[in-house]
Specification:
4-stranded antiparallel β-sheet; two-stranded antiparallel ribbon; 6 strands; alpha+beta; 5 helices
């Protein structure tokens, strides 16, 4: 009879141990499942799907700090293209310069006003001159803030009789601002000035 009780006690201990192991296993599996769900949720938030031409394209979200030099160079390039790519049309000139002025502070507006007072834009219109710019390179100083930059570009003045090529160098600083439709990169150019703008070559367009 005592052996019978002993067997029951031993079986109870085994069941108790098995129950503890089963509970520990359940807790471990639950913790692992919660961890995996959080990890996958974080990975999902870092993926962006862009709808283009009816197709969903996957993009990966990154910290903006990783892309500052790339975005800043494009911001500076777009500003110079809007400010300097002009055709002999008053409305086109006004529209292009207005887009550029959203990307810079009053320094760009002052430069525009000075050129306008000097009759520069009227000369483009009356002379049927197209002004084109190609940004060759942009040097950034990312070690200080606002970020300093120097832009090296080639400017062309296209007339019916000739094409004048100029070497253009500008410099300034850029600081962070809120993104908007008119300023998608979220930078504002400050203390912008032209360092060099001189003729390099004059080519006759007529045979």
């Amino acid at each position: 009879m005592f052996r019978h009780f002993k067997n029951i006690d031993s079986a109870f201990k085994h069941i108790k141990l098995f129950s503890y192991l089963l509970i520990a296993a359940c807790v471990g599996i639950s913790c692992f499942a919660v961890y995996q769900s959080f990890r996958y949720s974080g990975d999902f938030r870092n993926h962006i799907y862009v709808l283009a031409n009816g197709k969903a394209l996957e993009a990966i979200a990154q910290d903006r700090r990783d892309n500052i030099p790339v975005e800043l160079r494009d911001h500076i390039k777009v500003f110079h293209e809007d400010f300097f790519n002009l055709d002999p049309d008053e409305k086109q000139i006004q529209a292009a310069v207005t887009k550029a002025l959203y990307l810079a502070d009053g320094c760009a507006k002052n430069a525009y006003d000075n050129l306008k007072e000097a009759g520069y834009y009227n000369n483009l219109v009356s002379g049927n001159i197209s002004q084109q710019i190609t940004v060759d390179s942009i040097r950034l100083d990312m070690n200080s803030y606002p970020y300093g930059f120097t832009c090296f570009a080639t400017e062309k003045l296209v007339r019916s009789t000739s094409t004048t090529t100029r070497s253009l160098v500008t410099q300034g600083f850029a600081r962070n601002v809120s993104r908007s439709d008119n300023n998608p990169h979220g930078f504002l150019i400050e203390r912008w000035e032209t360092v060099k703008n001189q003729d390099e070559q004059v080519k006759n367009n007529q045979p």
